[in-house]
Amino acid sequence: MSSSSNKLEEVTIATQPIFTGKVISLQVDTVQLPNGKTSTREIVKHPGAVAVLAIKDGRMLLVDQYRQAMGRTELEIPAGKLEAGEDPLDAAKRELEEETGYRPRSIRRLHSFYTSPGFADEIIHLYVTEDLEEGQYAPDEDEFLHNIEVTLDEAWDLIANGRISDAKTIMAVQAWQLYHLTGKFGYDNE
């Protein structure tokens, strides 16, 4: 397999920074293609993020938040970006408590996945917890959130009517459904 992958590899010749912001940066890479020709790739750089499937008394914790890029509110699982050098597990615990007021007594990683590998390097580390205790609700100063708790059936209804439409939350609902059917949250052995 590696010999086939090597035949597909692109070699970066040059990188031109375009924009550096609070959350992302944008660069344009000039690459040499496998056939020797060159092309450009617009790349969004992101520090990575975490998301938490938190289940309390058989209900999933969701955050309702206005999303400017979408022009509307979106129901999502608690999530947030990694700070520089931050361990994803620590970030998951921090984000869950900040956004919901619950602290996980135990938590584990389900999966890590790239959100849009065609143009971005953002990776999200998805965690799950069913063991929560009261913590300190403390959203960021520019975060305005409303918390709700939903059953699995309600989550599917919210997906069907478009109130949940982001990949990380849909993936979390599917993992929760799999847990209901098999006792496992995916490829884990518990």
Provide a descriptive summary of the structure in words.
Residues 44-172 form the Nudix hydrolase domain. It is an enzyme of class 3 (hydrolase). The protein has 190 residues and is of the alpha+beta class. It has helices spanning 2-6, 88-100, 152-160, 167-182, and strands spanning 11-20, 25-32, 38-45, 49-56, 59-67, 72-76, 79-81, 102-114, 123-134, 145-150. α3 (152-160) runs antiparallel to α4 (167-182).
Total count of strands: 10
Assigned CATH architecture of the largest domain: Alpha-Beta Complex
Helix content: 10-25%
Structural class given helices, strands, pairing? alpha+beta
Q: What shape does the CA trace take?
A: globular
CATH class descriptor name of the largest domain:
Alpha Beta
Number of domains: 2
Give descriptors for this structure:
single chain, 190 residues, alpha+beta, Nucleoside Triphosphate Pyrophosphohydrolase, 2 domains, three-stranded antiparallel sheet, 4 helices, 43% strand, globular
Ordered list of secondary-structure elements with their pairings:
Elements: H1 2-6, E1 11-20, E2 25-32, E3 38-45, E4 49-56, E5 59-67, E6 72-76, E7 79-81, H2 88-100, E8 102-114, E9 123-134, E10 145-150, H3 152-160, H4 167-182
Parallel strand pairs: 4-9
Antiparallel strand pairs: 1-2, 2-3, 4-5, 4-7, 5-6, 5-10, 8-9
GO molecular function, one term: ADP-ribose diphosphatase activity
Pfam family, one: NUDIX
Organism: Paenibacillus sediminis
